[in-house]
Design brief:
Layout: E1 2-3, H1 6-14, E2 20-23, E3 36-40, E4 45-49, E5 54-58, H2 63-71, E6 75-76, H3 96-101, H4 109-112, H5 115-118, E7 119-125, E8 131-135, H6 147-151, E9 160-167, E10 169-170, E11 174-180, H7 188-195, E12 201-207, E13 211-218, H8 220-234, E14 240-243, H9 247-255, E15 266-272, H10 277-284, E16 287-291, E17 296-301, H11 307-311, E18 316-322, H12 333-346
Parallel strand pairs: 1-3, 2-3
Antiparallel strand pairs: 4-5, 5-9, 6-10, 7-8, 7-9, 11-13, 11-14, 12-13, 15-17, 15-18, 16-17
Domain FAD-binding PCMH-type: 1-171
InterPro entries: FAD-bd_PCMH, FAD-bd_PCMH-like_sf, FAD-bd_PCMH_sub2, FAD-linked_Oxase-like_C, Oxid_FAD_bind_N
GO molecular function: catalytic activity; FAD binding
C-alpha cells in the first residue's frame, strides 16, 4: 500500500488488522520485519530557510533531492549520510525518512555528530494511528521527552515518520585528504593521532587499495596550513601524501562502501572502541574498511560467517546488513527491558516492523 499523506498513514495504521512492514525507498532491508508492506511516499521539501540553516521535508523525500537543494545554497547535511544502494545490492532510492530511521551517519560524524544530532524535529504516527510531533524548526525542546532523538535509529519500530526537520551547516569551500601507506590493522594509531590533534579533522578512516585517510575541510588557506602541519605530525607513521583533486571521491567511496558493491559475501558493521580496531581487524581478516578513527569497522566476509563469534571478545555491537545471520545482536537485559517498555508505550499492539530488530 502506497501512502502519500500523513492522514492516509494514520488511517492505515489505525485500521491495520495485523503487522505492517514499513518501506521507504526500499534500499535498507535490514532485519526480518514481518507484515503487510506499507510504502511511505510522503514527499517534498516543506520548508527551507537557508538563512536560518533549517530544512523540513516529508519523510519519503529522496535523499538526493534534499542534498541537491541544500548544495545549491552552499550548504549540507552535517552528518554526511551514506548511499548504501549498491553495497547492499538493492534497487530503489534512499529517502530521508529511511536515513533517520536507521540513524545513518557518514565519515563526518567524528566532527559534526550523528544523524540524530542534526535532527531538530519529527512528526510520526505511532502504533495506535495517532499523529505525534516533537521538536520543530528551532533547536529548543521543552516537552520533557526527546522523541526526536528516540526516533533516530529505531528502524520504524516505535512509529512511522511522516516529516523530519534538520539543522544544516555551510558547505566547506576547500578540502584535502592526507593518505598514509598503512595496512588496515596498523592504521588506528595514526588515525587517533590525527583526531587528537588541534587541526579540526573531519574524517579519519582506512580504504582498501588506498591506505589510511585523514580529511580536513574549510577555507583554502586554512586547509593548506593544517595539511602541512598534519603531514609533519603523521610522518612517524610512514610516508604521507596530500590528495586534493581526488579527495572528495575517496570519502564518497568510504561513505558508500564502494569497494564492497557487487561483491559476494556477508556485509557486517562493527561499532567498537577505536583502540580495539587493530586486534579486531586482525581476527576478521578478509576485506575491511575503517571509519570514525577505527570506531566503525566494515567487513565483507564469506557467506554464512559467524562474524560475532569470530570477532569476540569486543566492546560494542555488530550488525549484519547483508547476509543470513540475525541483523542485530541481543540487547543486554536492562536495555532490552527498556526497549520493551518503549515499544509497549508507542506500539501497544506490536504491529510496527515486528522482528526488524529481533
Amino acid at each position: 500500500m502506497k501512502i502519500e499523506t500523513e492522514e492516509q498513514l494514520a488511517e492505515a495504521i489505525r485500521t491495520a488488522e495485523g503487522p505492517v512492514r514499513i518501506v521507504g525507498g526500499g534500499t535498507r532491508p535490514v532485519g526480518q520485519a514481518a507484515g503487510t508492506p506499507l510504502q511511505v511516499a510522503i514527499s517534498g521539501i516543506r520548508l527551507y530557510e537557508p538563512g536560518a540553516l533549517t530544512l523540513v521535508a516529508g519523510a519519503g523525500t529522496p535523499l538526493a533531492e534534499i542534498e541537491a537543494a541544500v548544495a545549491a545554497e552552499g550548504q549540507r547535511l552535517p552528518f554526511e549520510p551514506a548511499h548504501w544502494v549498491a553495497a547492499l545490492g538493492q534497487g530503489g532510492e534512499s529517502t530521508i525518512g529511511g536515513v533517520v530511521a536507521a540513524n545513518v551517519s557518514g565519515p563526518r560524524r567524528v566532527q559534526a555528530g550523528a544523524c540524530r544530532d542534526s535532527l531538530i524535529g519529527v512528526r510520526f504516527v505511532d502504533g495506535r494511528g495517532e499523529i505525534l510531533k516533537n521538536g520543530g524548526r528551532v533547536m529548543k525542546n521543552v516537552t520533557g521527552y526527546d522523541l526526536t532523538k528516540l526516533m533516530a535509529g529505531s528502524w520504524g519500530t516505535l512509529g512511522v515518520l511522516s516529516e523530519v526537520a534538520f539543522k544544516l551547516l555551510p558547505a566547506a569551500t576547500s578540502q584535502a585528504t592526507l593518505v598514509i601507506d598503512l595496512p588496515s590493522d596498523a592504521a588506528q594509531p595514526a588515525l587517533a593521532a590525527a583526531l587528537g590533534s588541534p587541526f579540526d579533522v573531519s574524517g579519519a578512516g582506512w580504504l582498501p587499495g588506498v591506505g589510511a585517510i585523514v580529511r580536513i575541510e574549510g577555507l583554502a588557506d586554512s586547509v593548506a596550513y593544517r595539511a602541512d602541519r598534519l603531514v609533519s605530525l603523521l610522518a612517524p607513521f610512514g610516508a604521507v601524501r596530500i590528495e586534493r583533486e581526488g579527495s572528495a571521491q575517496l570519502w564518497a567511496d568510504l561513505r558508500d562502501l564502494a569497494p564492497f558493491a557487487g561483491k559476494p559475501g556477508d556485509l557486517w558493521r562493527f561499532s567498537v572502541k577505536p583502540s580495539e580496531a587493530p586486534a579486531l581487524v586482525a581476527r576478521l581478516g578478509g576485506k575491511v574498511m575503517l571509519d570514525w578513527g577505527g570506531g566503525l569497522i566494515w567487513a565483507l566476509l564469506p557467506e554464512g560467517t559467524d562474524a560475532r563469534a569470530m570477532a569476540a571478545p569486543y566492546t560494542g555491537h555488530a550488525t549484519c546488513l547483508r547476509g543470513a545471520a540475525p541483523a542485530f545482536e541481543p540487547e543486554p537485559a536492562p536495555v532490552a527491558a527498556l526497549s520493551r517498555a518503549l515499544r509497549a508505550q508507542f506500539d501497544p499492539r506490536g504491529i510496527l516492523n515486528p522482528g526488524r530488530m529481533g
